Amino acid sequence: MSENGNMNGHIAQMLELIDKLKAVGEEIKNDHIAALLLVSIPKSCDTLKTALEARPENELTPELIKNKLTDEYNRRKEQDSDRNLAQAFRTNVSFKRSRQNKNDKFCTFCKKPWSFKGFLLSIRPLSHYTV
């Protein structure tokens, strides 16, 4: 599975392949199914994989792994959407601030944007500019 893939689709695809093998007559034990599910997940889920591998083997069922992988996928998906929303808000606020800063300082005489460099070059009286 790729890092950005759909975990639910991946699990369904893996279980479908296992069902096809069983239909052909291949006997696959639950611990082998659990191992196949764990091996197939991306590196970004290594901490979850380690936590699941630390459990006793009799507790490690395909259903448990499927549920944990789905929970982790949903949690990351929600976290990404929250992060994107926060980033959009920060971008909007910083854009407003940058526009305000540029428009705050201008020459009341010629209406051009004010800059300190321009002020030094023109050597006009200070009353010519508003800050």
From TrEMBL:
Matching entries from Pfam families are given as: Retrotran_gag_2
Tell me what this protein is called: Retrovirus-related Pol polyprotein from transposon TNT 1-94
